[in-house]
């Protein structure tokens, strides 16, 4: 975690946030990253969504993405204060392969990543997990359960995604604040354990 250097201002700002942590929220196309950040952010989230057009129809696979009409073209950003001493800055990456360069830039200074996974499209998560591992970021998996998707046992998900035993796996509904917070806290606890 990055500490802000002390200054004369601190005399007047005793309750000011002292520690900031950059967390990436990543996943494949249309897995719920924008929704997750919008649900968790205490400020109006920054969104860079654009309407999808015919030009992208041959590139973006809309199979299993009921009613999706927009897509993130740069990033999402939100902020969540966990305590008077700790604030999380949440950066959501675009999910399409053509935006991989954006991911590389966003990994700089990140402490870890929360990887959102759609249980009906697990194979689309492999390139995402590979990228996160390539950049050396510790991560947790959050299985985003959409309406009507079956709940799969953790052991089955771990095996399907080829995860290490210590990698946290949690379920959430990106629209629900409580379950999304639980997913984020699983990542934060994992990051804390790794620094002990």
Automatic annotation (TrEMBL):
GO terms for molecular function: GTP binding; hydrolase activity. InterPro entries: Gliding_Motility_GTPase, Gpn, P-loop_NTPase. It comes from the Bacteria. SUPFAM superfamilies: P-loop containing nucleoside triphosphate hydrolases. Keywords: GTP-binding, Hydrolase, Nucleotide-binding. The keyword Hydrolase applies. Belongs to the GPN-loop GTPase family. This is ATP/GTP-binding protein. It comes from Streptomyces botrytidirepellens. The lineage of its organism: Bacteria, Bacillati, Actinomycetota, Actinomycetes, Kitasatosporales.
